[in-house]
Design brief:
The protein is mostly helical. It is 78% helix and 0% strand.
Length: 273
C-alpha cells in the first residue's frame, strides 16, 4: 500500500516536471500531459481541468520571471493614461497590444470551451496536432530573423490569431505565437517576450473558467494533495526552464523541435489507434 502511494506521488511529480519543461519549449505542454496521463493512467476523466491547473502553476512562475517587465508595463500605462507622461507611451501600447492579441483566443475559448475540452480525450487528434506543429516550426525555421524592436498592431494581430490555433491540445501555443510574431518581423527576443506575455491572460482566463469543474478533479483529499504536488513541481521547473532555457533557444533550434514532434506525433497516433 505504501509503495503504491509512493508510485502515485512519483507520477504526479513527473507530470509537474513535464509541464514545467514543455511549457517553455514550443512542443505543446497540453499534448505531452495528455499522452503522459494516458500512459500513466492518471486523471483520464479530468485531463483538461488538470492541465489547466498545471498551466496556472506555470503562470505563477511566469509572473515572477517577468515581474519587472509586468510592473513596467502596468506602471507605465498608468502614468501615460492619468499623468499624460508621453515617455511611457510604449508601455501603454504594449499593454494594448497584449489585450488585442488576446481577444481571439478569449472569444473562441468562451464560446467553444466544451468542444475544445472534449478533444483532450482524443489521442489521434493530439498526434496529428503534434505533426501540424512540427510542420509549422520547420517552415518558420527557414524564415529570416526579424528586425522590429517593438510590438506593433500587425504583430498583435498575427500573434493573436496564431495563438488561437494553439488553443487545441497537441498544437504548441508558444510555437504558434512565436511563429506569428516572427511572420510579423519581430526580433527573436521580442517575439519570445511577447509570446509569453500573451500566455498570462490566456492561462488566467482558462483557470477562472475551469474553477467550476475543479470539483470533478479534487474528489477527495488525496487527489488534492497529489494535484498540489504536481502544481508545485510545475511551478519550480517552469521557473527553472525560464531561467536556464528561455533565452537560449532560438530560430535554428525550431527544426530540432520539429523533428522531435514528428516522432512523438507518430507515437501518439500509434497509441491512439
Amino acid at each position: 500500500m505504501l509503495m503504491e502511494r509512493f508510485i502515485e506521488i512519483l507520477k504526479y511529480i513527473f507530470l509537474g516536471f513535464l509541464q514545467g519543461i514543455s511549457e517553455i519549449l514550443p512542443i505543446s505542454s497540453s499534448g505531452h500531459l495528455m499522452v503522459a496521463q494516458h500512459l500513466l493512467k492518471v486523471n483520464e476523466s479530468a485531463i483538461a481541468t488538470f492541465t489547466i491547473f498545471l498551466h496556472f502553476a506555470s503562470l505563477l512562475a511566469l509572473l515572477i520571471f517577468f515581474r519587472k517587465l509586468i510592473y513596467r508595463i502596468i506602471s507605465g500605462s498608468f502614468q501615460y493614461l492619468f499623468y499624460k507622461n508621453k515617455d511611457r507611451k510604449d508601455d501603454f501600447l504594449l499593454l494594448l497590444y497584449v489585450i488585442v492579441a488576446s481577444i481571439p483566443i478569449g472569444v473562441v475559448g468562451i464560446l467553444f470551451q466544451d468542444s475544445i475540452e472534449s478533444l483532450f480525450s482524443n489521442l489521434l487528434f493530439v498526434g496529428f496536432s503534434f505533426l501540424f506543429t512540427a510542420f509549422v516550426l520547420f517552415i518558420i525555421s527557414f524564415l529570416k530573423e526579424g528586425n522590429k524592436e517593438k510590438v506593433d498592431l500587425k504583430a498583435a494581430i498575427y500573434t493573436g490569431f496564431a495563438q488561437l490555433i494553439g488553443i487545441f491540445p497537441g498544437v504548441s501555443r508558444s510555437g504558434m505565437t512565436l511563429s506569428g510574431a516572427k511572420c510579423a518581423s519581430l526580433k527573436q527576443e521580442k517575439a519570445k517576450e511577447f509570446a509569453f506575455l500573451l500566455f498570462i491572460p490566456a492561462a488566467l482566463g482558462s483557470f477562472i473558467f475551469s474553477l467550476d469543474d475543479a470539483k470533478y478533479l479534487f474528489q477527495d483529499s488525496q487527489m488534492v494533495i497529489l494535484s498540489m504536488i504536481a502544481m508545485i513541481v510545475a511551478f519550480i521547473f517552469t521557473l527553472l526552464s525560464l531561467t536556464f532555457i528561455f533565452k537560449k533557444f532560438n530560430n535554428k533550434h525550431y527544426r530540432y523541435f520539429a523533428i522531435y514532434l514528428v516522432f512523438i506525433g507518430i507515437f501518439t497516433i500509434f497509441i491512439g489507434i
